[in-house]
Amino acid sequence: MQAIILAGGFGTRLQSVVKDVPKPMAPINCLPFLAYIFTYLKKYNATDVILSVGYLNEKIVEYFGDSYLGISIKYAFETEPLGTGGAILNSLKLVDSKKPLIVLNGDTFLEIDYKKLLDFHNSSKSKLTMVLRSLEDCSRYGSVIINEDSVVTDFVEKSVLSSSGFINGGIYVLSPEIFSQYNLPKKFSFEQDFLCKYISKISPFGFISNDYFIDIGIPEDYRKAIIDLPKIIKNKALFLDRDGVINIDYGHVHKIADFHFIEGIFELCIRAQEKCYLIIIVTNQAGIAKGYYSEEQFLDLTEWMEKEFRERGITIAKTYYCPYHVESVTEKYRKDSFDRKPNPGMLMKAIDDFNLDSNESILIGDKESDIEAAKSAKIGNSVIFDHKDSFLLSLSYLFKGF
Q1: Could you name the CATH architecture of 236-398?
Q2: Which of 29, 83, 114, 400 is found 20 to 30 A from 298 (Cα to Cα)?
């Protein structure tokens, strides 16, 4: 399944609560809104996504890179706003022209069965299928009129008057050659300049979905999404200890020159992402408390390490660390912290931050203290890894049955 996600909008109405990021990157439980869309698409075996980006596109590119959850990502850049139609047209050069294409907005979410949608589209033999959502009040969006054969026949503009009906859910299935017979400008609205203008020629079909819908375009609905989305889309994580699992443990590693990745760690993480696991690091860093290196040195090394993962198509959702120890040389770090493994504090923070299903999550550590922490946090699976062995052992244990 291939898709275009329109993620180039300014999000002007949302800037009172979400600043310095494009609207699709608005945070929901430590993850951008767009990440929830990817997770949902992955559920229906999406393989390729083209992200149409414009405003602050570097924020999106930096986070998602060339792949996310095993989904290949390409970028269609807008140097100037192209409108929804122009953005789709600009993205078509990156798609497989022989396959139907799903187009959706990066600032709305509709709970929908994409398999049924594609089956409906293929059976209708139409070049365009629109997903419609019934609402009691369509005044904010305008409404869509369909006949008894599910063919879209007309559009009614937004109104101050409340009325029930169907709205455009912002999701389309289309044939990539749909624009070929029309003389279209570089900038145009897919809805106004194409759908409305050529409705009788296109004769799109309407696929009705009455499941959960949210548009984060206004602060009120964005706040609602923060509450609702994590209930619909639960995440799961692969927790990794650092020293002894990600890198060879020479004892208090804090320099790039001494940081040697364990063979197989990247392959493990790529495989985990393909199975929709977030990659989260949880590491005790008593070396900070004992004065072997500073917290700043640890954070600099962490930034470098996460960059190395990103360059291989792996996103580290977050690195949690505990700099505390009862034998700290400074008072600042001298305490028995609930975050320090075998205590489960870091894991429990991550479960809360990322709305994780702990029972579906996995932890790999190299000490019994890691396993104890996992048990206390009710992590479903945990394993001690010995870097003298192959990560293939962990792979076969963790992903058996997949």
Answers
A1: 3-Layer(aba) Sandwich (3.40)
A2: 29
